[in-house]
Amino acid sequence: MSRIAYVISAYKDAPHLARLVKALDHDADFYVHIDLRADIAPFKEALGNKVTFVPRHWVSWGGWEQVEYQKELLAAVIHSGIAYSYVVCLSGQDYPLWPDEKIHRYFDEHKGTEFIAAMNLSRSNNRKQRAKIELYHFFRDLKWNNLWLKNKLIVASRCLMKLLPFRKKSTLQIGDTPKAEVYFGSDYWALTLPCARYVYATLCKEYAHLKTYFKTSFVPSELCIQTIVFNSPFATHAQLHTEEYGGLFTLTPLHHIMYGKEIKTMTLEDLPALEQSGKMFCRKVVSGASDSLVKAIDSNGQKQQAL
């Protein structure tokens, strides 16, 4: 059975993160980023030496710093020197819907597949989606504690940029490709180690071009790695979405996530939908609210392993 590297971002609910690690702790290693704004002590107490903590960044949703911590996580995996089969990206509020053995078996049976999905924004006719890269998006990385005021500034600047005639190009330079097309997908993916190495090497080599372009795009973490992969030799093994955009869940290959104004917290009443989803993981799972659900998932997993 091959070994998996899980790269995880978290900022709260250390007990659940420990529960997530315990559920996946078989032929696996865990690399964890804790938001610099959060107290890391509960995480260290809950996880001990079960994980590798990476250098921390002040993270604002939709800011470039999300790409920075993705880069930190990939660096830790690659510099470990361990020959992982897959690098799987999770959040600290995920939970596996499949038994650990089934997850490993599935990855072993699909060697070479890149579990990352994306749509091409450079060629898209969807104006709302193209606006993610053609409009300038400012102020996401401001280190302000007053989130209400910060959000007002972000919204005001976005409204202003819609009125002004300034637009970004829908392509960027990556290496020898002067007009690399831009792709959009979910933060959550699973890449083979060769693909993960390629992504990390590109993030390092093309850092200036990538940061300049994506820092003023909408949610760079949903654009940057996808753009690297889909402009690489690994694109033929990834999942290109060519249908009309129907929501971010269509670009999330391994996760069941219920998007809305905010991501729905999963409870026991969601178990039938989770079982029918066929997905490997779900989000979001929260200590207290989701405890009965986790018990039911674990019980089902034990029954599957016994068969």
Please tell me about this protein's structure.
With 307 residues, the chain is an alpha/beta fold. The protein has two domains: 4-123 and 173-306, Alpha-Beta Complex (Spore Coat Polysaccharide Biosynthesis Protein SpsA, Chain A); 127-163. Helices cover 39% and strands 17% of the residues. It has helices spanning 14-24, 41-47, 65-79, 100-109, 127-134, 147-163, 193-205, 207-214, 224-230, 271-277, 291-306; strands at residues 4-10, 28-34, 52-53, 86-91, 94-96, 117-120, 171-174, 177-181, 183-185, 190-192, 239-240, 255-257, 281-283. The strands form four sheets. Strands 3-2-1-4-10 form a five-stranded mixed sheet, sandwiched between helices. The chain has a three-stranded mixed sheet with strand order 5-13-12. A three-stranded mixed sheet has the order 9-6-11. Helix 1 (14-24) runs parallel beside helix 2. The longest helix has 17 residues, at 147-163. The two termini are 19 Å apart.
Question: Keywords for this structure?
Answer:
alpha/beta; 3-stranded mixed β-sheet; 2 domains; about 300 residues; 11 helices; globular; 13 strands; Spore Coat Polysaccharide Biosynthesis Protein SpsA, Chain A
Could you outline the blueprint of secondary structure elements for this entry?
Blueprint: E1 4-10, H1 14-24, E2 28-34, H2 41-47, E3 52-53, H3 65-79, E4 86-91, E5 94-96, H4 100-109, E6 117-120, H5 127-134, H6 147-163, E7 171-174, E8 177-181, E9 183-185, E10 190-192, H7 193-205, H8 207-214, H9 224-230, E11 239-240, E12 255-257, H10 271-277, E13 281-283, H11 291-306
Parallel strand pairs: 1-2, 1-4, 2-3, 6-11, 12-13
Antiparallel strand pairs: 4-10, 5-13, 6-9, 7-8
Helix pairs in contact: 1-2, 3-7
